[in-house]
Amino acid sequence: MIETDILIIGAGPTGLFTVFEAGLLKLKCHLIDALPQPGGQCSELYPKKPIYDIPGFPEVLAGDLVDNLMEQIKPFQPGFTLGERAEDIDKLEDGTFIVTTNKGTKHHANAVAIAGGLGSFEPRKPQIVGIENYEDRGVAYMIKDPEAYRDKKVVIAGGGDSALDWSIFLANVAQEVTLVHRREEFRGALDSVEKVQELVTQNKINLITPAEVTDVKGTDKVESVTITIHDEAKRFQEIECDAFVPLFGLSPKLGPIANWGLEIEKNAIKVDNTLDYQTNIPGIYAIGDVNTYPGKLKLILCGFHEATLMCQSVYQRMNPNKKYVLKYTTVGGIDGFDGSRKEAEKAVIKKIGS
Ligand SMILES: Cc1cc2nc3c(=O)[nH]c(=O)nc-3n(C[C@H](O)[C@H](O)[C@H](O)COP(=O)(O)OP(=O)(O)OC[C@H]3O[C@@H](n4cnc5c(N)ncnc54)[C@H](O)[C@@H]3O)c2cc1C
């Protein structure tokens, strides 16, 4: 059982910044995310795009914003359960919560902050009969650990950035990489398309277009795939492989959270925005893109603000008899849970001699 003060569901920018604000109040956080890496939409959908409306940053790449947030929260030593979806919640008699993921990992927390954005990103799966029998037996819809493909024969399907980037990366790791796409054109960054072209010329990537993987075969695990080539003759090709990775993008779904007894309006969680972004269940908060209230704006800076006020509420919940006095970080500094301390230089009181 993972123990924490605040369990954050969603490691997007809102969830990450929560760790910082909670840390200032000496509250420990653990984050769950269905994706294998933190950053939410910023990392998954537009890491290379510049954002222009983060206060104090005239321009910052979404991926760099995530890196900076990770750096900012490092002293507060957050825990992460990545690649798992928060599935069930139980409220115990003492008012604390147990949240269980789809892989059975259990987390016990005093408060739960749902920072789930548009919902957990679920992979779009190809329409191949029986493919589910090979999931985790060679079929994967996202690459969590590229080392798992070392010296293996891998077939990747897809025509976007993920398919291109992973084909490039695995070309130097796997024994054989085959990239299959139903069109001849790819929708990705120009330099990635050019790099794939170069690797095809060097025989490091076997490119098959316009084509689709239409069957997966194997006894206990993937042993081969059938590729239907969409040329005039409509040919079929059987390729021996250890892994089949369809990378067709992700679609967000509020998913299991929608069944937790929370008030939902237009696919978002209703919260009390006059106070602390708490939901209709005391101790469960919803912050960032996932919540709704009059005047709600789905912007990163709004998520940061909501996270800040929510942490104050959790502090009061855990310390009902303590009065919290707001301290500026410029005055109080930052005491990391790792023993680190950051503080502004103290003013020196010194007599200036005549
Ligand atoms: C192309 C694009 C450009 C944008 N440009 C801007 C901009 O310029 N400025 C701006 O302010 N905003 C911009 N946005 C919006 C901004 O990205 C969002 O407001 C922000 O990402 C919301 O952050 P969040 O942390 O609330 O949610 P998200 O970033 O959506 O993160 C939520 C995370 O929760 C996870 N999750 C959800 N449910 C579960 C579950 N049950 N179990 C486990 N994990 C779960 C998801 O996998 C996801 O990683 C843009 C969005 C897009 C798509």
UniProtKB/TrEMBL annotation:
Catalytic reaction equation(s): 2 reduced [2Fe-2S]-[ferredoxin] + NADP(+) + H(+) = 2 oxidized [2Fe-2S]-[ferredoxin] + NADPH
EC number: 1.18.1.2
Record-linked SUPFAM superfamilies: FAD/NAD(P)-binding domain (SSF51905)
Binding residues annotated for FAD, in chain numbering: 14, 33, 41, 46, 86, 121, 289, 330
Cofactor binding: number and manner: Binds 1 FAD per subunit.
The entry's keywords: FAD, Flavoprotein, NADP, Oxidoreductase
Cofactor: FAD
Gene3D superfamilies: FAD/NAD(P)-binding domain
Protein origin, superkingdom: Bacteria
HAMAP family in UniProt: FENR2 (MF_01685)
Family: Belongs to the ferredoxin--NADP reductase type 2 family.
Descriptive protein name: Ferredoxin--NADP reductase
Phylogenetic placement of the source organism: Bacteria, Pseudomonadati, Bacteroidota, Flavobacteriia, Flavobacteriales
